[in-house]
Amino acid sequence: MIDIEVFIKTFIVLALFGTAGVGLYGVIAKPHATKKIISLTILGDTVNALAILLGYRYPGGIPPVYTGQPPNEFVGSAVDPLPQALVLTAIVIGMAVNLLIIYIALQTYRLYGTLDTRLIKKLRG
Amino acid sequence: MSGVRKVASAVALLAIVAVLSLGAAAGGMGPFFDGIRALGTFYLSTAPPQIAELVLGPSYRGLSSYSPEVVTSIVWDYRGLDTYFETAVFFLAIIGAVAIYRGIEEPVLRRPASGLSPIVRAVTKFLIPINIAVAASIALHGHLTPGGGFQAGAALAVAPVIVIVVFSRRYLLERGVTKLKALFLRSVGLIGIALVVLIPVIWSVLSGEWAWVMQNQWKPGAEVFSYPAYLGGALISGSIWFLNLFEFLAVSFGFTILFLLISIDEDTVRSCMIRGGEECDRY
């Protein structure tokens, strides 16, 4: 008899690992800088989602905001706030760093006329 | 791509997933779904002021950050230095982008601004004040409800993008949202964060008592200094409210600079880069 809970947990984690693998593959194997940037955002978002999942708890799972319930009940059922705090800053920093990378790619395109890393590698002078 | 490379890529992809799964199966992800870590329990049971005042003894009350929103109290109190240096990374990313666009300032536009259809423009005029109000409420209630300076800044940064798309870049500039003003307000936010972080140290030097960098409430060993947890009867959670406000300014106007720069007409940028003529601001 298959435990449906174990199946769902395994499925979610494997799906996230697979997505992270696809992101990593895109960063390394795709020659075009735009596709590298897209893959990088996929990789970053997947890692963020995985971190949020690590802080989840199944019986309970209420948000970590105290709203006046008995303290023991709150501590016993709220999700882990630490991954959420780390991911919160990581998202905003990721957005700023992504914009910086996009700016650099834009400047590269203006200077070289292409974003294909195979062609940029061959340029001299 | 050749056949060998395709096969090698697929094998590498499967190997990455397999190695990650191996780590997870060996217990590398901690207590998964089943309860939370001891550190999380500590944060949950000390941060809210109600729990601090009811449950914790007087000697432990100084470990509280007096914020019912535990995520915000981690971001700005328990792990405040992390956030401080992440703000530094944010600062450097924006400085880098501004440096790439140095010397390029769009001249007074030759053609009149048109924008999208009147329906879209009318709806946007209603939506922008709502957007700003929501962002301000996320920032100023960040210590009570889910939210805070980062999220509010990202929410407010949506407004200039919508205005640029629906109206034009010129519309935004004519209403006073310029790069220099945004740089100024972002700097005000960053200086405010640095001040709030350093006020305990300055106070410590002046008074001779002990206080930590980024101290919010009193801590064991530094009992005298603490930011006021309540202001006029309203809970402001000490320094958290001020840090949220300043981070809101820094993040929202930092992103405004980036969106203003990236929406500059590509022809203008190219002519500035090639000729550097009088239509470009050189400074």
Can you give a write-up of this model?
The complex is a heterodimer of chains A (125) and B (283). Chain A is an all-alpha fold. Chain A is built from five helices and no strands. The mean pLDDT of chain A is 89. With 283 residues, chain B is mainly α. Chain B has one domain (40-274). Helix content of chain B is 63%, strand content 1%. In chain B, strands 1-2 form a two-stranded antiparallel sheet. In chain B, α4 (70-78) packs across α5 (80-100), α5 (80-100) packs parallel to α10 and α6 (118-140) packs antiparallel against α7 (149-166). Chain B is globular and about 70 Å long. The mean pLDDT of chain B is 86.
How big is the Rg of chain A?
A: 21 Å
SS content category of chain A: mainly alpha
**Structural class based on helices, strands and sheet pairing of chain B:** mainly alpha
Uncertain runs of chain A with pLDDT below 50, 5 residues or more?
Answer: none
Tell me briefly what this model is:
The complex is a heterodimer of chains A (125) and B (283). By secondary structure, chain A is mainly α.
Summarize the SSE layout with pairings.
The complex is a heterodimer of chains A (125) and B (283).
Chain A lengths: L3 H26 L3 H22 L16 H7 L3 H32 L4 H6 L3
Helix pairs in contact in A: 1-2, 2-4
Chain B lengths: L2 H23 L12 H9 L2 H6 L15 H9 L1 H21 L17 H23 L8 H18 L2 H6 L4 H29 L22 E2 L2 E2 L3 H24 L3 H9 L9
Antiparallel strand pairs in B: 1-2
